[in-house]
Amino acid sequence: MAKTSALLATMKTMSSKHKVTRQRATRRVPASAGPADPQLIEDLVAANRILADYGVLDGYGHVSARHDRDPNRYLLSRSLAPALVTAKDIMEYDLDSNPVDTQDRALYVERFIHGEIYKARPDVQAVVHHHSPAVIPFGVTTVPLRPLYHMAAFLWEGVPVFEIRDVAGMTDLLVRSPALGCALAQTLGNKAAALMRGHGAVVVSSSLPGVVGRSIYLQLNAHLQAQAIALGGTVTYLDPEEGRRADPGGYQRAWELWKRKAMTK
Ligand code: MN
User: Fold this and answer.
1) Residue 230 CB: number of other CB atoms within 10 A?
2) Fewer CB within 10 Å: C terminus or N terminus of the chain?
3) Residue 60 DSSP one-character state
4) What is the pTM of this model?
């Protein structure tokens, strides 16, 4: 209880700090970093469609990439189902998640997940937020999601769980503010992924192919782990040393296949 009160107090301080930043930021429209590399935009469109094809994203969830011209800008679709995203839907944001040019388009309410992670993690170039049902059980029970499949070896450092109730009390569970995005980024720490209790997950990588591969195999590992536990007996997980050695990295070979399939439909 004391821990919760302390967190809530910290959150209050963080929240008021962020409010100042946000008010200041919303008074000015951020300058554009200039047109992003068309290849990056194409890959971001492909990432949306691939993740929809694999059921990681459905009508909801989103994927973003850091702008290639300015690390203080990121690219994310307007509010739209990922399978429908095209190049003209991609918008530019600053790291406070203010759009450069809204053109009266609707924005994802949880865009702060992306901006706050890019602020906290200079190594991250791409972020996915999804609601895959497969991962939900591991966010709402005491059973931690752990890698047992070599394609998900990147999970070897552990998968923290973001408990929004600890930082904001009763909410609708959505990351609707910079302060909540910041708290989520703190829970993620230096890890590849974090679960969000009763909501979904966030996955990060140093590239778009990397974050797509990690999102697909995180979901698959969750399915396999639930199956392994259901069989009974003892489950053998990857040893952290095996995880470190087996980390598949950028998923480049699979990316070429996924992208071609997604873009030629
Ligand atoms: Mn969400």
Assistant:
1) 7
2) N
3) S
4) 0.90
